[in-house]
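2024-03-11 09:14:02 DEBUG pipeline.ingest accepted 1 chain
2024-03-11 09:14:02 DEBUG pipeline.ingest length=382
2024-03-11 09:14:03 DEBUG pipeline.predict start
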Amino acid sequence: MSHIHVQSADDADSLVEALAHAPRLALDCEAAGFHRYSDRLCLVQITVGDRTWVVDPLAFDVTPILRAPLERPDVGVVMHGADFDLRLLSRDLGIRIHGLVDTQIQASLIGVEGLGLASLLETHFGVTLSKKYQRADWAERPLTDGMLEYAADDTRYLERLTDILDGELARLGRQAWAEEEYLALETISDDPRENGDTREDPVVRVKGARDLPPRQVAALREALAWRDEIARRDDRAPFRVIGDPPLIEAVLGGASGFEAMTAIRGFPRGLAREHGAELVRRLEAVTRIPEPELVGYPRHVRRGPGRPPPELEVAVERLKAVRNRRAEEIRLPKGTLMSNALLLAIARAAPATMDELLAVEGMRAWKAQVVGDGLLEVTRAL
């Protein structure tokens, strides 16, 4: 198979022409977050009909070419598992997709268990996607022919796939369900979590940090800042500089120099040699901080809503029973019909009317139509 590699505006004439007349296109993106400090947009793959383009946003500004067709509500944009890609396009290019169609959503509402693109393509077309470049560094340049072909495969079958899945949705009378989910997903591009402006204390992301005394938490915070500065400077994902376990061991063991650091399993010798002295300096500075001035683990931070009180747990179990029965009746996975998190939110809100049920965050009209009456029988009795 072939594709057109677009590395400049001069290479994009055929793409511009195709997009100008396309009622529908298939779209995918590749980012560099697994390897690089920033998960910036590195590739945009587009298929229109039987032609595929792999566009390089690191080589030139692709926004003028893509904005109009992607933001037109009358142009269908077929994607698979679009959540993260929508955030990338919004954050890096300022483009907000309209006319979204997501084949992963389609498959989930049909009741398919294997929702991955590879599984769907193998099922419907007998196509086996290569796994060779699943963890590729998409910020690498030049990209190999194999990497470009791998990227192109992510869109070249999507238009055919969506037609098959949409036909099945029509047979089941669930096209409106999918449309509602597409619209909800389109709003993901405005999520403030993707604006890059986070104030979260980095220690809350480290397993076991909650149980450390304040001085060790302060030392861990300094070690994380040290790692982050190196990662940012070298444009490497922080875990590729050094993983959390050896970093914590360095903090707990009071790494005193090169030999102590290299004795820690997983602590890179080159890192210890080049930057170890700065880590030692920071950790020693923490030992001199007066006790009252130490900033320990932020105790107000809670991961998730916590365990609900017993009476609420009983309500959730009753709601689950209603959900499970209905899911079995319509042959839909329980979590697709309604997640446990949504059931907990419903139990907390205790809606008495359909309007109140629809007001619960995350609720969809199609879900309320399918199982709402049964849920309200439970919540009205609370």
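2024-03-11 09:14:41 DEBUG pipeline.report Residues 192-197 have pLDDT under 50 and may be disordered.
2024-03-11 09:14:41 DEBUG pipeline.predict end
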